[in-house]
């Protein structure tokens, strides 16, 4: 029988030792408290085993005393555990330090019992048939110790019971289990108080195991879904879990909000989110990550969905779960950024770079198609901005972009290259000139300035794609070359790049290359056209230019000046003429010729590529001439390109003594308005006025009013284009003071001018 009893106690000892070892390895706030209970329990089982199984009286007596001390400390550690485990529920009523003092005294008394045997003695008794054991013989004083133990046990139970009623519902079970097992242990102890074997030791082991489980292992079953709901409920992603039978075992609120969305028709599979997830789970293809578009009504919803398999320890499939992330806002923001990166903010057409890219891809992928590149711009757009403001200018661009979109079904791609420059790629068979003509449309609303209505006019240049290896930018350049040939033409609005145009371009390039040599070798020759007073006395001349080309003969300014104005070389020509005029004035002064002036022209591009002011100051110093002998002609349209800075320049030149003439007065859009904002010395009437005045009472009235106004302002007027005596007389009657034209003298070389007028 002792063998069986020893085996049972050994098992209890081993179990307690195992749990003691496991507890020592845990990093948990309750680990120290549980460890103390296990140490006390281990000691209790050990000493009780020794007391029952040894046959030496003294050893048995010492073991029983050690056993009772271990029980006392076990109960105290249980109480200590309950105070910590239940949230120090009874800490204000139970002083642990006081209890330890009492327990220490109790332990000393039990040690004293080894010598005095006042609490209990032991006797050799036959039990369990033929087997004999040492059994405690309790005395009256022992019950003081026992009462103290019961008191500790009751306080321990009160703490657990009170916590049971105050704890959340799904936490109550663990407190109930600990209390029930402890009560069972106490019943066994009391019932077997006089028995030779204390079977409550088994209850103590069960209590120790229960405490370990509740402290470190136990999780309320209802806590998991509540925790999942609370954790995932605040997440921005959806969570959906399925078992092996495709049943939903968990989903958070985010998923609930998406259950009514539908996936667009794809491979004859139109389904909702829930069904789609089930379909993916059935495939059992492993983990995946994909992008899926669903719909709520007509609104697209973009999702990133991850599927993860749930495996057990044996790598067997248990189910799966889905992480569903709504990327709708992110995708919309991304698409918006992509749109802004490829589209013009004002017109919403493609920007230049993206137009080039899309056009190039299409051209290379459709080598068999006949294609057109069409480039357009708006006539005098800068002046529209200057006169009417950027708001009106922007509206003009938006209106033209809308016109392009009206025929977008005929276009392959289209974009805004910059400012008022637009480009489209389309099939030759779909092309119509009317698609790009604004002239036939309504005049721009609110586009009046100085009571003059302004009509928007667009020009287009067309390049048929033949050389497909060219850059799209070069193709657009050729289309613009065609466009530039008709700028200012009120009859033609569309021009085509062809062999003739190409030859003209080659011709222009050749002339441009030869300009430097022409200047160096003085092939450029200054001609002078006389300017006279009402009595036909020549008082000066306008400097004009001819090119004595060694191979092409004499070229008039109408041949090469427009070319150089387009490519910017006009500044070199102008600087050459300015110096030629100053040099000639100096020569006349040195020869004692009568004083006359020479008028030289300042081209619009001179303002941007030349320091005009410093150039004329340097010429005055170099040739030692007076500013009054060198008149400066500036076109009205040139001034309006940058009104404020040009006005400042004119004032600086006038302050030096230069006579500044406003050339082609009346050709721009705000001639009269300019007179109040800019100071000039002479107005040179546009010859178009004179042409329009022939046999026209309205023209005569306009001329009369302009000349009369100039007199009131104190500004002399010179009229160009006088070709007949009748015209001269008519202008004299109107009060015009100076004249220029074929009637008074054609442009002639300097020698002829000198011999005839000087």
Could you please describe the fold and organization of this structure?
With 758 residues, this protein is α/β, with parallel strands linked by helices. Helix content is 51%, strand content 20%. It has 27 helices and 24 strands. An 8-stranded mixed beta barrel has the order 15-16-18-19-20-21-22-23, surrounded by 5 helices. It has a 5-stranded antiparallel sheet with strand order 4-3-7-6-5, sandwiched between helices. A 5-stranded mixed sheet has the order 9-10-8-13-14. α2 runs antiparallel to α7 and α24 packs across α25. The longest helix has 29 residues, at 57-85.
Please name the defining characteristics of this protein.
single chain; 758 residues; alpha/beta; Rhopdopsin 7-helix transmembrane proteins; Beta-Lactamase; Alpha-Beta Plaits; 4 domains; eight-stranded mixed barrel; five-stranded antiparallel β-sheet; 24 strands
Content of β-strand = 15-25%
Question: Uncertain runs with pLDDT below 50, 5 residues or more?
Answer: 440-452
Number of strands: 24
Strand order of the largest sheet: 15-16-18-19-20-21-22-23
User: Major sheet: size, sense and barrel closure?
Assistant: 8 strands, mixed, barrel
CATH superfamily of the largest domain: EAL domain
Give the CATH level 1 class of the largest domain: Alpha Beta
What is the approximate shape?
Answer: rod-shaped
Integer tally of domains: 4
Mean pLDDT: 81
What does the radius of gyration come to?
55 Å
CATH fold annotation of the largest domain: TIM Barrel
CATH architecture assignment of the largest domain: Alpha-Beta Barrel
Helix content: 40-55%
**Terminal-residue CA separation:** 157 Å
Structural class: alpha/beta
Tally of separate helices:
27
């Amino acid at each position: 029988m002792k063998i069986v009893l020893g085996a049972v106690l050994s098992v209890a000892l081993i179990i307690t030792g195992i749990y003691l070892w496991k507890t020592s390895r845990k990093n948990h706030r309750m680990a120290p408290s549980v460890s103390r209970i296990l140490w006390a329990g281990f000691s209790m089982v050990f000493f009780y085993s020794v007391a029952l199984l040894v046959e030496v009286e003294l050893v048995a007596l010492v073991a029983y005393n050690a056993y009772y001390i271990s029980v006392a400390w076990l109960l105290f550690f249980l109480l200590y555990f309950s105070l910590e485990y239940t949230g120090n529920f009874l800490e204000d009523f139970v002083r642990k330090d006081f209890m330890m003092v009492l327990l220490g005294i109790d332990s000393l008394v039990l040690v004293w019992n080894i010598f005095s045997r006042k609490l209990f003695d032991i006797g050799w008794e036959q039990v369990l048939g033929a087997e004999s054991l040492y059994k405690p013989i309790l005395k009256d004083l022992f019950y003081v110790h026992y009462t103290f133990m019961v008191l500790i046990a009751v306080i321990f139970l009160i703490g657990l019971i009170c916590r049971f009623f105050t704890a959340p519902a799904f936490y109550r079970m663990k407190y109930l289990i600990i209390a029930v097992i402890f009560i069972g242990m106490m019943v066994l102890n009391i019932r077997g108080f006089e028995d030779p074997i204390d079977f409550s030791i088994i209850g103590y082991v069960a209590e120790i195991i229960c405490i370990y489980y509740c402290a470190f292992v136990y999780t309320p079953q209802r806590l998991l879904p509540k925790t999942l709901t609370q954790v995932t409920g605040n997440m921005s992603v959806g969570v959906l879990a399925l078992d092996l039978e495709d049943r939903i075992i968990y989903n958070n609120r985010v998923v609930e909000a998406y259950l009514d969305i539908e996936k667009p028709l794809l491979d004859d599979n139109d389904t909702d989110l829930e069904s789609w997830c089930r379909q993916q789970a059935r495939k059992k293809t492993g983990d995946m990550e994909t992008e899926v578009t669903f719909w709520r009504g007509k609104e697209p919803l973009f999702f990133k969905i991850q599927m993860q398999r749930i495996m057990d320890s044996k790598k067997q499939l248990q189910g799966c779960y889905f992480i569903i992330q709504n990327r709708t806002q992110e995708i919309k923001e991304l698409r918006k950024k992509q749109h802004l990166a490829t589209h013009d903010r004002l017109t919403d057409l493609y920007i230049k770079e993206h137009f080039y890219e899309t056009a190039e891809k299409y051209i290379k992928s459709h080598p068999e198609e006949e294609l057109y590149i069409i480039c357009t711009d708006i006539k005098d757009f800068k002046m529209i901005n200057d006169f009417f403001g950027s708001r009106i200018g922007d509206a003009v661009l938006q209106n033209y972009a809308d016109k392009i979109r009206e025929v977008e079904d005929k276009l392959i791609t289209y974009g805004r290259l910059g400012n008022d420059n637009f480009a489209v790629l389309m099939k030759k068979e779909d092309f119509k000139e009317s698609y790009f003509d604004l002239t036939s449309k309504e005049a721009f609303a609110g586009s009046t300035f100085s009571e003059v209505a302004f009509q928007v006019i667009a020009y287009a240049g067309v390049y048929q794609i033949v050389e497909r290896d060219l850059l799209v930018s070069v193709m657009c350049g050729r289309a613009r070359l065609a466009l530039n040939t008709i700028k200012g033409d009120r009859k033609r609005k569309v021009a085509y790049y062809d062999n003739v145009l190409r030859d003209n371009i080659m011709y222009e390039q050749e002339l441009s290359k030869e300009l430097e040599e022409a200047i160096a070798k003085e092939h450029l020759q200054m001609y002078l056209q006389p300017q006279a007073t009402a009595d036909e006395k020549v008082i000066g001349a306008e400097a004009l230019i001819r090119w004595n080309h060694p191979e092409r003969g004499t070229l008039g300014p109408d041949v090469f000046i427009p070319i150089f104005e387009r490519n910017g070389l006009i500044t070199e020509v102008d600087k050459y003429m300015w110096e030629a005029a100053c040099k000639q004035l100096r020569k006349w002064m040195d020869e004692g010729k009568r004083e006359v002036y020479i008028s030289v022209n300042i081209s619009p591009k001179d303002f941007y590529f030349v320091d005009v002011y410093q150039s004329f100051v340097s010429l005055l110093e170099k040739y030692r001439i007076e500013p009054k002998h060198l008149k400066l002609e500036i076109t009205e349209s040139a001034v309006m390109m940058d009104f404020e800075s040009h006005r400042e320049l004119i004032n600086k030149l006038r302050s030096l003594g230069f006579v500044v003439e406003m050339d082609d007065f009346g050709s721009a859009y705000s001639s009269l308005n300019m007179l109040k904002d800019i100071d000039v010395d002479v107005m040179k009437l546009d010859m178009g006025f004179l042409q329009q005045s022939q046999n026209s009472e309205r023209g005569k009235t306009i001329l009369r009013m302009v000349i009369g106004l100039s007199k009131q302002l104190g500004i002399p007027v010179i009229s160009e284009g006088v070709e007949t005596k009748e015209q001269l007389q008519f202008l004299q009657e109107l009060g015009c003071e100076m004249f220029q034209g074929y009637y008074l003298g054609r442009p002639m070389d300097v020698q002829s001018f000198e011999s005839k007028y000087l």
